[in-house]
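Q: What would this chain look like folded?
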Amino acid sequence: MFLKEGGNILKDTTSQSGKEHKPRLIQHANGPSLEEINGTVEVPKGKGFWKILFAYSGPGALVAVGYMDPGNWSTSITGGQNFQYLLMSVILMSSLIAMLLQYMAAKLGIVSQMDLAQAIRARTSKKLGIILWILTELAIMATDIAEVIGASIALYLLFNIPLVVAVFITVFDVLLLLLLTKVGFRKIEAIVVCLIFVILFVFVYQVALSDPNWGDVLKGLVPTGETFSSTHSIGGQTPLTGALGIIGATVMPHNLYLHSAVSQTRKINRTDEDEIANAVRFSTWDSNIQLTLAFFVNSLLLIMGVAVFKTGAVKDPSFFGLYEALSNPDTLSNGILITVAKSGLLSTLFAVALLASGQNSTITGTLTGQVIMEGFIHMRMPIWLRRLITRLISVIPVLICVIITSRQGTIREHTALNTLMNNSQVFLAFALPFSMVPLLMMTNSEVEMGSRFKNSIVIRILGWGSVIGLTYLNLIGLPGQIEGFFGEKVTSSQLVLADSIAYVIIVAVLLLLAWTIIELYKGNKKYNQLINER
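A: My prediction, written as structure tokens:
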């Protein structure tokens, strides 16, 4: 049994009867975050900057995966097709906000020795903890749906495996996880980094062949009044909806939980403030470097939409449509691309990158699921069982979609899968405030972080600005996302219904957020009083 109070963890290895319990499939958990790997990675002392940075490198890659998963692809490419380089600034702003949030998440884990889920649960009631757990699980399953769709389509495109069979094959990635649990956490980090570089190489190669106008690319990094405009529409999309799509697909709640856990894998002296500060510093370097790579991947995706394809050539932004467009000379922008495309290399590389992205997200999604389950409801199960359950649940809507539409023609099937993937992301808008706001409150607090590690005034201002801005953009984009559930041709009655549902959800989110903030404030105040009494 583990007892946690303000981040101090005490272990009691015996039960009240004095007898040891036999291991069970599902166990009570109230100990260190990801206990099997917590504090297991040695870091050198007194070495040079680069050697120490290498030792801390890895957790940032696990986090960066969430910023370049299959859910990002169509939004970035479609944004480039419709608005050229206008939305480059949105990708840049999203990446900078991500760096800020992930810095705070890593700092919370290292300083408090609790991940975000544990920190929230330690300051809130059991009832609220269960609600937040369910909400976060839904967000993870939403991203899992995108991974199932991406991986099954990649298998179909690469090996011509029927989609129904390919969907079932994705369930067996649990075997990959079983293998990875045997090789050690450091090797898992290395595998993830390798897969990231596979994705990066594919898009660098394709964009290099397209020879984009780099001057226009750089101009696109500066936001203008038109960036969030809702006045003109191209292909049914406005710059605002395109920006919301990119933001929604980029900043994901589960990354904050994951980073606050995996940042604790390094073995440091928890009683030495200087060593803790060093861990925060190098974890921040690691995170920022990896998120910079994610920024380049997302930027390359948008540049692909502008430079690889002819303007307006991609009519189908689904993975199927992009694969076909990369092998169709009529859609490509120059002779070099056309020559390479005829060999099938461009489309094959795209499918390989899609498969690599799906597998990366599988690894990180499973770790995050374990973090929130143990943190919010104090329950632990084997990682393979956890993955099997969540993947089987995520497979159900994908299978239903494939089975229903397979008889209605290939185009209908492809469109339905793309719509399902986009609509599944709506849960991210619900869950994001409930990870960002507590994270900011915790890291702003001297009670949690101490005077040395609490957020500076600059970080507070930037943090609250980012949290309020992202929450606002996610919520105002919700009516449009709900309308997407009704298909392309929405009737006036469906429009009214969609907006009504969206406004009810917005009110519910704001009320739940207020409840969370009040409980966190009271819990923090109570713990502060407890410390003062001692």
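The CA atoms of residues 117 and 372 lie 6 Å apart.
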